[in-house]
Amino acid sequence: MQDRNITSPAQRVDIVREFPDKSWADDGPTRGVEAVVENGAVLSFPHLPFVLGEAERRFLDPRWADGKAKNISLRWPPNSSGPEMRGAVGDANELAELKAMITRYAEQSEALALRLFPHYRGHLKRGNTSFRPVDVAGRETSWRKDDTRLHVDAFPSNPMHGTRLLRVFCNVNPNGRPREWRVGEPFEAHAKRYLPAIGRPLPGSAWLLERTGITKRRRTEYDHVMLQLHDRAKADAAFQRTSPQARVDFAPGTSWVVFSDQVLHAAMGGQHMMEQTFYLDVAHQQRPETSPRGTLERLLGRELR
């Protein structure tokens, strides 16, 4: 059961849309819900668990994480020995079984995404797959990396150039504990809140960041604006307290899908979650104008290069 209690009286936030699907397979009924997710909704599947085998249940323990990263991840595309796994500890056989479990989640998530979004078929690119056995609460981190603060996803070292971030999550907690989220105001309202204070990047800064290895490739003005939106929201204590928002509890066995570069979200609590990232070029959306890039360019009245 999902708790949609409003945590701010300023404005009702109701962006979760539930679906009764019980199968991950690509051979079930096609949903065709591109317009729903592109408009900034969270698609929730309360009856769609990622089922662990008997031997796999032992991985529901933070001891498998190496303590350096907040999750255990697989990196795609694979090399000659398959996808690289990072952030895990264990002997060779244990790590092979853990890797197989996470790979299975990647495959099931892709099958689900193809069924939900037939317009994206042939255009989704598989990104990292992660298993998060560590409790959200109590993690010491900087305010910029603090995911308990409302934010849209944007990355200082990895400019996205407008590419969309579609994520498929599943709560695999064995003890009945929900994944506790907050979701916030629509992206356009959020952009209007901070855009007047965001200037253009300094001339030559994108070249310098790439040249010194701070960024993996050139940071565009779009990436600059998205990072500013990310940082300003996280640094704004009043916004975090009083902006339009709602609490959403995803019970164990629930899966949910969201464009995390568009939906303001914060992970407040929970332990043991699977997550799959997909990349989608804006041009392959059903309605590209609804993307963060399309919205920002409309509000600014110019192209973000």
- Mean pLDDT, rounded to whole units? 94
The description of the largest β-sheet is: 8 strands, mixed
**SSE series:** EHEEEHEEEHHHHEEEEH
Share in helix: 10-25%
The backbone outline, from C-alpha atoms, is: globular
How many DSSP helices?
A: 7
* Number of structural units classed as domains: 1
Uncertain runs are 1-10
Side-by-side strand order of the widest sheet: 1-2-9-6-11-5-3-4
How many beta-strand elements? 11
Short synopsis of the structure:
The protein is of the alpha+beta class and 305 residues long. Helix content is 25%, strand content 22%.
Task: Explain what the structure shows.
The protein has 305 residues and is an alpha+beta fold. It has one domain (43-300). The protein contains seven helices and eleven strands. The chain has helices at 34-38, 92-116, 187-194, 205-211, 221-235, 237-242, 292-300, and strands at residues 16-18, 42-45, 72-79, 82-86, 125-132, 164-171, 179-184, 245-250, 255-259, 265-269, 273-280. The strands form two sheets. An eight-stranded mixed β-sheet has the order 1-2-9-6-11-5-3-4. It has a three-stranded antiparallel β-sheet with strand order 8-7-10, with no helix packed on it. Strand 3 and strand 4 form a beta hairpin. Helix 3 crosses helix 7. The model is unreliable at 1-10 (pLDDT under 50).
